[in-house]
């Protein structure tokens, strides 16, 4: 059994490498793994002038009124921990010129990020930018890793590796290619398919169930891309609905297709839920088939679809709530403004979120029948004769799975 699993893992790696080769052959020169390069003018980038510092003393505390807000302020002594000014102590004001979060006071020993600037008189000024959160984030990540492994065992470990692959594909393939002016839709589709396929094979092994899930993923991605392209054109979305788009155009010298970036974002946004949906549906099909291998194809499809219908209803609701939660500050702003809902829906940055949610949901809905029929066909054919079947692996990676 261990030998079979090792063989399946090796075969999965070979398939991933073959996929990379095919994409590189079809799109020569566009598949270069490298991190995104910084802009020529780094002073325009987020956090480009930021350095870490540690608070050594509180020099002054008191109350100040900024507009209609009455808040506390602090004057701090901070030692710079990196860069050309490492070891230099600077005086930093916190809460004198900007609204500060209530109840978040700084203490000696806290680490922060500072933005440094130099005046015409060559005097260095430091401004509080944000808290350093590296330590707490590492604690959270370590907790996440421990619980993933404790609950899911080796599947949890493979899931973490899959997560690493996903992040790597986004950072080293999708982002650099889009910044280099490549078609965001093509890059997002190929990148999304690669990272989902790699994750599925890594976590669930070289099995017929995984093959069906990967094919269902590809079908849903292609359909989602077509729907996104159609409705982005229909609603005349330009990609310039927020300030980030304008900033990005300035940084990239106008090489990025902003409308295509909206399309690519819609595909990437639906990936996490799509992964869960296709593998669950494929698992349902193969579990039903394992209970009754003689079940007719249409009965297998219909029974599996009943489960899929319940699952997709909950999944679409999850997707809508996720987008709504991310846009909650925007909803509050709209409520305060008192603007008409008909007007708000026509604003590009609002319409973009509506299209993103609806298109992503349509892709997820389509993934259910696609994956179900593909998994049903594969399951029913898995007992057939032929040289190819012995290379496609067992039906599932479970102990009770059918082998050829």
Question: What does this molecule look like?
Answer:
This protein is an alpha+beta fold and 404 residues long. It is built from twelve helices and five strands. The protein has helices spanning 2-26, 134-152, 154-179, 184-204, 208-234, 243-251, 258-269, 271-291, 297-326, 328-337, 341-346, 348-381; strands at residues 50-66, 69-80, 89-94, 111-118, 124-131. A five-stranded antiparallel sheet has the order 3-2-1-4-5, with no helix packed on it. Helix 4 packs antiparallel against helix 5 (208-234) and helix 9 (297-326) runs antiparallel to helix 12 (348-381). It is elongated. It starts with a helix and ends in a 23-residue tail after the last helix.
Which structural class do you get from the secondary structure elements? alpha+beta
Count of helix runs:
12
> How are the strands of the biggest sheet laid out side by side?
3-2-1-4-5
Mean pLDDT: 77
Layout of helices and strands, plus pairs?
Layout: H1 2-26, E1 50-66, E2 69-80, E3 89-94, E4 111-118, E5 124-131, H2 134-152, H3 154-179, H4 184-204, H5 208-234, H6 243-251, H7 258-269, H8 271-291, H9 297-326, H10 328-337, H11 341-346, H12 348-381
Antiparallel strand pairs: 1-2, 1-4, 2-3, 4-5
Helix pairs in contact: 1-4, 2-3, 3-4, 4-5, 4-7, 5-7, 5-8, 5-12, 7-12, 8-9, 8-12, 9-12
């Amino acid at each position: 059994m261990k030998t079979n699993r090792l063989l399946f893992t090796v075969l999965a790696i070979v398939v991933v490498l073959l996929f990379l080769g095919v994409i590189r052959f079809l799109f020569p020169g566009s598949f270069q793994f490298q991190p995104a390069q910084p802009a020529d003018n780094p002073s325009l980038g987020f956090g480009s002038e930021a350095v870490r510092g540690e608070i050594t003393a509180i020099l002054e505390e008191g109350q100040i009124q900024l507009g209609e807000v009455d808040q506390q302020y602090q004057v701090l002594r901070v030692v710079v921990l990196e860069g050309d000014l490492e070891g230099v102590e600077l005086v930093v004001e916190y809460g004198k010129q900007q609204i500060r979060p209530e109840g978040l006071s700084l203490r000696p020993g806290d680490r922060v990020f500072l933005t440094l600037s130099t005046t015409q008189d060559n005097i260095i000024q430091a401004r509080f930018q944000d808290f350093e959160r590296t330590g707490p984030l590492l604690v959270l990540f370590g907790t996440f890793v421990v619980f993933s492994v404790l609950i899911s065992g080796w599947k949890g470990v493979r899931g973490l590796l899959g997560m690493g692959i996903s992040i790597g594909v986004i950072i080293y393939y999708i982002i650099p290619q889009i910044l280099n002016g490549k078609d965001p839709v093509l890059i997002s589709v190929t990148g999304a398919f690669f990272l989902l396929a790699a994750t599925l094979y890594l976590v669930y092994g070289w099995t017929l169930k995984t093959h069906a899930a990967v094919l269902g993923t590809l079908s849903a991605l292609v359909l989602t891309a077509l729907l996104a392209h159609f409705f982005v054109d229909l609603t005349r979305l330009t990609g310039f609905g927020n300030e980030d788009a304008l900033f990005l155009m300035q940084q990239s010298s106008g090489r990025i297709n902003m409308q295509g970036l909206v399309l690519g974002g819609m595909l990437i946004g639906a990936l996490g839920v799509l992964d869960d949906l296709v593998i669950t549906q494929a698992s349902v099909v193969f579990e039903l088939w394992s209970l009754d291998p003689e079940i007719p194809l249409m009965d297998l499809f219909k029974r599996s679809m009943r489960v899929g219908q319940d699952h997709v209803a909950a999944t679409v609701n999850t997707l809508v709530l996720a987008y709504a939660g991310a846009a909650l500050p925007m909803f509050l702003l709209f409520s305060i403004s008192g603007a008409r809902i008909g007007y708000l829906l026509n604003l590009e940055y609002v319409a973009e979120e509506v299209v993103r949610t609806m298109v992503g949901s349509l892709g997820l809905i389509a993934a259910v029948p696609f994956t179900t029929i593909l998994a049903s066909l594969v399951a029913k054919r898995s007992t057939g004769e032929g040289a190819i079947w012995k290379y496609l692996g067992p039906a599932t990676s479970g102990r009770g799975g059918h082998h050829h």
